[in-house]
Design brief:
It is a single chain. Helix 8 (199-211) links the parallel strand 7 (191-194) and strand 8 (218-221). The chain is of the alpha/beta class and 304 residues long. Strands 3, 4, 5, 6, 9, 10 and 11 form a 7-stranded mixed sheet that branches. Strands 1-2 form a two-stranded antiparallel sheet. It has 3 domains: 3-82, Winged helix-like DNA-binding domain superfamily/Winged helix DNA-binding domain (Arc Repressor Mutant, subunit A, Orthogonal Bundle), CATH 1.10.10.10; 92-161 and 267-295, D-Maltodextrin-Binding Protein, domain 2, CATH 3.40.190; 163-265, D-Maltodextrin-Binding Protein, domain 2 (3-Layer(aba) Sandwich). It is built from 11 helices and 11 strands.
Length: 304
Amino acid sequence: MNLKQLEAFYLVIKRKSFTRAAEELNVTQPAVTIQIKSLEKSLNVKLVEFLGRRVQLSEAGELLYQYAEKIFDLAGDAEEKMKDFKKLMRGTLRIGTTKNYARYMMPSLLPTFQRKFPRIKVILDEGNSEDMARSVLERKNELAFISQLNLDRRIKSLFFSTVEFVLVASPEHRFSERQSISLRELNGEPVILREKGSGSRAAILRKFQEYGIWPSVILEASSLDFIVGYVKQNRGVSFMFEPDIKEELEKGTLKVIPIEEGNIIFFTDIIYHSEKSLSPPAQAFLKMVEKLKGELPLPRAITT
């Protein structure tokens, strides 16, 4: 069934006039007549009859008009919904983030976004940097906040922030008696790191390689509580995010050890799939982040 022909039939009956239907379709009145006759011919059934200047529907025409009304009501509704997406009146934004960004950055970023666009549903996904990069590649998340990694060529990245994390030890550790230590003194020292795929783990290992450091033992853990407990028991040292251990530092059960070469610094990015068009919500979120980036309350150190 030709939808243009069906639309001409529908508007003639709805407007009760060939003239008004032609004006709405921006065609001539004879063109509307031709469309309806073509529709009758293609369906091999009489749809309209003329009683003087009045148009009357046949039984088949009555039935077809009911269907046409549903079809064009749905089409109009669909068009309005598409306009809503463009106007950010509806839609979904899926964002991936590392756990610490979820804890410290998203509580300020997401409410700002949702105040501007209250009808946009936001779904937040958490994981390590490699997991979140993979989620964007697999199109599970549209955007993600991760540490800088060697990314697939299909992933595009935008610089977000510089981050820093500090060396932490038990107060009973021999380093705690020192004003500062050199990174090279970690050679032969037990060190606990985050799991594979974590940006902090990758950054620390790169720094170790740069300085020729070989710890005696490297333990990996995804649980922050495990890492804190392990260091508190004086079984090794770790590079950690200060806000995560604020309570331990205040109680004196952990201590930050200054490093002569400076704390370990790396960069975080916002990434997205270069081969996929960003949705209006994702475009609006990126624009908002770019505008607020210099005003965001970034913690002094963030591990990922």
